[in-house]
TrEMBL record:
The gene is uppP. Catalyzes the dephosphorylation of undecaprenyl diphosphate (UPP). Confers resistance to bacitracin. GO terms for cellular component: plasma membrane. This is Undecaprenyl-diphosphatase. NCBIfam families: PRK00281.1-2, undec_PP_bacA. It is a multi-pass membrane protein.
Amino acid sequence: MEHNTIVAAILGVLEGLTEFIPVSSTGHILLAGHFLGFDSPGRSFEVLIQLGALLAILGVYAGRIIQILTDAPRDPAARRFVAAVLVAFLPAVVIGVMAHGFIKTVLFETPMLIAVMLILGGLVLLWVDRRTTLPLYHRAEDFPLPMALKIGFIQCLAMIPGVSRSGATIVGALLLGADKRSAAEFSFFLAMPTMLGAFVYDLWQNRDILDAAAVGNIAVGFVAALISGVIVVRWLLGYVSRRGYALFAWWRITVGILAMVGLTVFG
């Protein structure tokens, strides 16, 4: 197995393990790829393997998704929840399309920025996790539409690698009155259209530069992300309900510091 294939498998596992926890999967993959000497055409690998993580959450939540969609025609609460997820998704569509080139050619190519954002995001997550205000919402299905839209705009901060899509949505939901479990759960549901949209758009943008080797590496990373993603999704909600987000905050800070040291010493 050639070097790039091995690294693709490692990065795929890393994607699945980090996509749904607030530590920035893209930041981890870009930093790991930098130090492991992995490069992908148009930085497509880092986006396209997210399909594996997306299928992981679809598999785990298949029953609940089908139930919500089945109930939507006759249940106002189910319709409101579907609308809330779509409303939260809209800012990412507009801003993501407008800023796509800048994100891929500038932000994705700045490892030191990623390390800094990991540390800053960890500090914010620690602060939010330690707040003692009583939550207003205990179920993701109860989030009102204005709150969902605000979470959607906050999610757009994750277009800066190192911020974390799940981290931004979770912190946004917590600040807007959600409890820890419902914040993570809404992040799961919002991930579905967001990741699918990013996959389709990036695949279309890079359709002419993906050769057989790149597609093979993406396939390896996709499978690895799918398997590790299932494990994380099944574990995460129970963990954050009991323990909160401090572990992930300290993980971010540690990885960010190590990355800054590595970039300073090795470049």
